[in-house]
Amino acid sequence: MASVARVGISGWKYPPWRGTFYPPKLPQRKELEYAAQHLGTIEINGTFYSLQKPDYFRSWADQTPDDFIFAVKGGRYITHMRRLVGVEEALANFFASGVLALGPKLGPILWQLPATLGFDAAVLERFLSQLPTSTGQAASLARGHAALLDGRAFTTPAADQPLRHAIEVRSHSFDTPAFFDLLRRYGVASVVADTAGKWPRLTAVTTDFVYARLHGETALYESGYDDAALDRWAVTVRGWLADGADAWIYFDNDVKVRAPYDAMALAERLDAGQPR
Question: Where are the domains of the chain?
Answer without folding.
Answer: 5-270
